[in-house]
Amino acid sequence: MNDSSAMPSSTASASQLAHLSVVWFVPVMGWAGLALAWRAAGLHWPWAHTVSTVAASVAAAWLGFMLLAQALRLLRHPQAMAADAAHPVRRNAFAAAPISLALLLAWTESALALPREGLVVGFVIASVWQWLTTLWILSRWLKPGPASEQPWVLINPMLIIPVVGNVIMPLVGLPLGLNAWSWAHLSIGLFLWPVVVSLLLVRVTLAGGLPPPLQPTWFIQLAPPSVLGALALSSQAPSIWVWLCWGFALFVLTWVLTTWQSLKALPFGMPHWGMSFPSMAFTALTLRLTQTPEGGWLLPLAMLLLALGSALLLWLTAMSWRQRAALLRPEQAHAK
């Protein structure tokens, strides 16, 4: 039997695996965020828990697939993994893997009656993974050597991903009673978030805006205040802190929406997934605020955000599947 007809397909599959970068962990964050948002919607509509479970299942399946695929990719294409590690944008997406695990654990805590011991083990794995990943990503700042010809290429909104991951960890750790370590994680996010935002503003001032393909990643700025607001609400902090976070997140959302016309003109790419989790984090916070005495008036806005966010996740997923051949190939140089 002649196998030559199968060779092009086999070669194409190998090439796609090589270009299945760690950025493909970011959709897991989006679907996990959608699950948490619909879980919050269950406070109003019991059937929303079913939608939440479906979204969480998609996120879990996607995470499992990506972990296996990246392990295989490391074995067969170690140079491709090394390229991700050296890339100024993709490097930050390594943090999306432990963050995805933490988000699924946060959903599991609220939705499933699993033994505490198992959740603690999962939290320890996600926590150590996140801590070491953040340390590795930021270690690049301290390496000696000559100044880069393009020093600002390292400063992009994707850098917020490892930072916000440390804010997410307390959402899992605090309900488990692991308070001290959870606050230690939070300290990383609280101190580094303003630093990263300041660097982004300096980059825009001195080096101009982001390359067009990266424009959707501006939405990532929405994640830290949204997650901080959810954390303040969960830890029963004074309501003023929750509303300060929500108000700033709302401003960030309206701020990044001013780029909508330029976003519509962009060809679809993986940076579009940068809109997913931040949007769902803000939606979840808004939904939870509708249950507070002073937040009932937010229900119409929360419903609108949930509908638009769900449509966004479905659109991103459909477009990723439809254009998978184009996405799983070497990126253009200007995409950095």
Question: How are the SSEs ordered, and which strands pair?
Answer:
Elements (H helix, E strand, L loop, with lengths): L6 H12 L7 H16 L6 H29 L1 H9 L9 H16 L4 H23 L21 H14 L5 H29 L15 H12 L4 H18 L3 H5 L11 H14 L9 H24 L1 H4 L9
Give the CATH topology.
Glycosyltransferase
Q: Which H/E pattern describes the elements?
A: HHHHHHHHHHHHHH
Superfamily at the CATH H level? Answer: Voltage-dependent anion channel
> What is the CATH C-level name?
Mainly Alpha
- By DSSP, the count of extended strands is 0
Mean pLDDT: 91
Number of helices: 14
Low-confidence segments, given as residue ranges, are 1-8
Give the biggest sheet: none
Shape: globular
Whole-number total of structural domains: 1
Strand content: under 5%
Tell me about this structure.
The chain has helices at residues 7-18, 26-41, 48-76, 78-86, 96-111, 116-138, 160-173, 179-207, 223-234, 239-256, 260-264, 276-289, 299-322, 324-327. It has 336 residues and is an all-alpha fold. The protein starts with 6 loop residues before the first helix and ends in a 9-residue tail after the last helix. The chain has 14 helices and no strands. It has a single domain, classed as Voltage-dependent anion channel (Glycosyltransferase, Alpha/alpha barrel). Helix 2 packs antiparallel against helix 13.
Outline of this structure?
The chain is mostly helical.
List the defining traits of the structure above.
Glycosyltransferase, globular, disordered N terminus, mainly alpha, 14 helices, about 325 residues
